Amino acid sequence: MIDPRVADDPAMQERAAILRGAEAAQARGESAQAVIDFDRAALMLHAADTEMGLVRAYLQAGEYRRALSFAAHTAGAHLDSAPASALYVWLLRVGGQGAFAQRLLDAARARAPADAVLGEVATEFRKPSPVAHGVLLETPHRMAPHDTGAPGQPVPSAASRVVSGAVLIDRGRRALVPLASLPADGAEPLWLRNGLGRTTSARLDPAGQPPAALGVAVLLLAAPLEPPQGQALAARDPFAGSSGFVVAYAATGRADAAWPWLHQGFFGGHEGQTGLRRLGIEVPAGLKGAAVFDAAGRLAGITLPGASNRMLPVSLWKAWAGASDEIALAPASPMPADEACERALRVSLQLIAGR
Amino acid sequence: MKLRPFVLATALATFGFAVAQAQTTAPITVKLIGFNDYHGNLQTPGTFGVNTTIPAAQRPPVGGAEFLAAYVARLKAQNPLNAVVGAGDFIGASPLISALFFDEPAVETLNRIGLEFNAVGNHEFDKGSAELRRLQNGGCKLTNGLPDPNSCKGLGSGAPGTFDGAKFKWLSANVFETATGRTLLPAYGIKSFNGVKVAFIGMTLKDTPRVVTPTGVAGLDFRDEADTVNALVPRLRAQGIESIVVLVHQGGFQTSPNVGDINGCDGDLKNSNGTDSDIGAIVKRLDNAVDLVISGHTHAAYNCSANTVDVRNVAGVVTSTPRPTGLANKAGRLVPVTSASAFGRLLTDIDLSIDPVTRNVIAVNAINRLVDRTDAGIVAAIETDPSVRNIVAGYSALVSPLAAQVIGSITAPLPNLGNAAGEMPAGSLIADAQLQATQPAALGGAVAAFMNPGGVRNPGFAPAAAVYPYNVTYGDAFTVQPFGNSLVTLTLTAQQIKNLLEQQFVGCLGQTTQRILQISNGLKYTYSASAPACAKVTDITLTPTDLTVVPPVVTGAPEPVVSAGVVLNPTRSYRVTVNNFLATGGDGFSVLLGGLNPLGGAQDIDALVAYLAGGYKAPNPPYDQSLPVLNVPRITRLP
User: Which of A89, A243, A287, B431 could form a disulfide with A165 if both were Cys (CB 3.0 to 4.6 A apart)?
Assistant: First the structure.
């Protein structure tokens, strides 16, 4: 659509200022304000940059489904904007829709073969777990959340790095992490960050730890992270062959905020008499400590380090998950992948260690 | 034209015509329900406020196909004289749930919403005119000459595997095929209300070729909107039509100084430099015969009509002031012009008052209304009729990338056709999977499994055009086992097992149809087809077999359960697995109601996935039912 208001210089200057304010609010983690500002700008001009800002603001507010839906429209309505297509296909893949994302990416590259953003996305998509960096982190299409720390807390230092995934439990007050991922001397500061970029410092929970044989530890968060509404633990371990989700971060060796990747597949069976499970769901090599959900979107386990894809099912650690975590007893309907992804953005965490 | 007072009716009354005659000349009211730019938003696009003064937290969730359908139904119930119309872009630039299936879900839900006439928009041409025609007329999408697997899911069509096409009419008055000189689709639609015809002319913006990829509009000529309408007016009048509604995929924006209320017409939609908006420029040249313009394209909400309100926010004080308006036409008359935002957030509720004698529209009463998902009456209506919600949920499930995942391989077709004894290759595989899933002691400790033949759906594991070894996908498996039954492991005595197998045949224990149960590896039996009812099963043998390993391993000596028709140890108990349908006496198998110590387990399809993926997925060799360790056939039929 060719918007005649683009010729109104004063209005366009005002719009540019509003967009700058919106991006600043977004960077501070003030998603609600960012949505208001981007909305105002959208009322002034129908343009891809504003709509991409709205997509990211929805996402940083935790509304993956709304963001994905609007990103679809932004990409379709602004075929002249290669970054709009790039952002959409990135979000599709975040939610496990890799095949469709690749199809759209190919079509977008056919329209704009020289576009740097699309080119970089294509390069990353050839990797098992893409990583946003360089041009992919520029606005308006920025393909990662902003790192927004809890008030009054020290932020992760430049020398820190993401060492593992982690799983939010106990209504956002604690987190489960692979024991092997913790720094050996215990002296390094630790942070946890969700898929919305919310970061808080954390420490080993002094109230108690699971048996070391389970291979996991419990961290206490300095400031709770908001869990998804109605988050529940699976009442029982998933049956072999049933479907589920794993939501895992790419390993980067850095400390950047990122969106995790959702993988959907079928659970494997028990592994001997250990109580551990073969994960079954095919997940590329990357950070362990990823959150595992059953078909109904209930938290069902955490992936463990090691050569084989294994998970520690919820039955073995729910005693440490906190009495306040609700356990879902009733049968539940299968959860669509986009809804599971939306919830997982708050549950699947990055564990960051300082240096 | 238009908005004439009741001159004729008044005159007739003055001259003493009967009351009954006067009643027949009373104005009729026709309800139009309009919306635009649906863009395949089957699911809610999020929250939306009636204007920008509404804090984000107070904006209700809006939209979604089932809510649109319920709101439309509510409005239609207010007046049987109604029509549901659209202003284009109902497909294209759509979310995954519609786009993945070539926008067939959008069309199917619009059919259920009750849409009747819809202008083409620029996005209707995203995939070209041939694809638009397919969506209008139905039929499956072909990819490389073959039906695309993501087409014809048929959740909102007449049957699975079909796509009905649009039951509404796409209108394209200003889009002509250069080869034929004809409009691509009908120029207008006509609906009659108590004998009074109303015409709906549908158009897209003439600049469509500038905003669509060239291949999408190849061979098409997009003509001026106003000229198109004005040329049609004499044709419509020649048919006795005086009530004319334009559905046009072109629009404008509200401008300062107000707050963009959904029933506002701020700045009369003029551009900030005072020039006419695109829609304003079209209306300005329209023939005076046009009574109403329902517009779209800009995704803006506005209501330039007798019901326009100016909503202002001055220092936090919000005021709303009526300001009847419209956009001036060629004759300078103000014509009502509406737009309902986008994505199914709003509906425009319009009452046309029509003089039945002159057939002219004499008043237009338009209101934009939120499609508010928190409306209790609407929520209750959806509970009463969840059909559209079910379509949305169905497509939401189909979007899952799981369907294409390979769960295992097979060396040969495993159809659901029974041999002479009634044994199906697909049924044997399923029974084995169910036994494997329930064999561990903690999961049931089963020694045998029985599967009802009706639960093994067409075509079995034998897709048309499959090449073997064939990679079975989750989608294939779901086709065979779509019911979501769960497994139940029960304790049956030897006598009950005998009775269960006798109950397969007509006339035994109330059975009315022969249903040969599919049985798991390790179990074998023989029956005599000519023997009397309840005395057909002559021999049953159970060989303990561990199916949790691949290939299966025999773990004990064969145990005769029935020999020469005699149950050898009638009270000996066995743990057997069936699905919950059978466990509750389904298909007439009432014997299973006597099973003890039931233990619920996985879903049937989970068991199948686990069995194939755990043992017969690459790099493991494919499943080969001809191998002796699988003991097929397992049922022997004697004359």
Answer: A287
Domain CATH code at residue A50: 1.25.40.10
CATH number for the domain running over B27-398: 3.60.21.10
Side-chain half-sphere CA neighbours of B599 within 13 A: 17
Mean per-residue pLDDT for B579-603?
Answer: 95
Q: Is residue A290 part of a domain?
A: yes
Residues of A in contact with B609 (CB under 8 A): 241-243, 266
Chain B within 8 Å of A315 (Cβ-Cβ)? no
Evaluate whether residue A66 is within a structural domain. Answer: yes
Q: Of A44-53, B170-179, B551-560, B568-577, give the lowest mean pLDDT range.
A: A44-53
Question: Stretch B399-404: mean pLDDT, rounded?
Answer: 84
Nearest-CB residue to A264 (from B39, B298, B402): B402
- Asked if residues B537 and B500 have their Cβ atoms less than 8 Å apart, the reply is no
pTM: 0.85
A76 contacts chain B (CB < 8 A): yes
A73 & A207 share domain: no
Instruction: Note whether residue A152 is domain-resident.
Output: no
**A89 and A219 part of one domain:** no
- Cα Rg of chain A (Å, integer): 21
If you count them, how many residues does chain A have? Answer: 355
pLDDT tens, position by position, B227-248? 999 999 999 999 999 999 999 9
Q: Would you say domain B405-638 falls under CATH 3.90.780.10?
A: yes
Mutate to test the interface with A, among B249, B390, B606 (most CBs of A within 10 A): B606
Amino acid (one-letter) located at B388: V
pLDDT single digits (tens) B290-342: 999 999 999 999 999 999 999 998 888 999 999 999 999 999 999 999 999 99
Asked if A69 lies within 8 A of B278 by C-beta distance, the reply is no
Closest chain B residue to the Cα of A37, Cα to Cα? B52
DSSP letters spanning A75-142: HHH-TT-HHHHHHHHHHHHHTT-HHHHHHHHHHHHHH-TT-HHHHHHHHHHTSSS----GGGGSTTT-
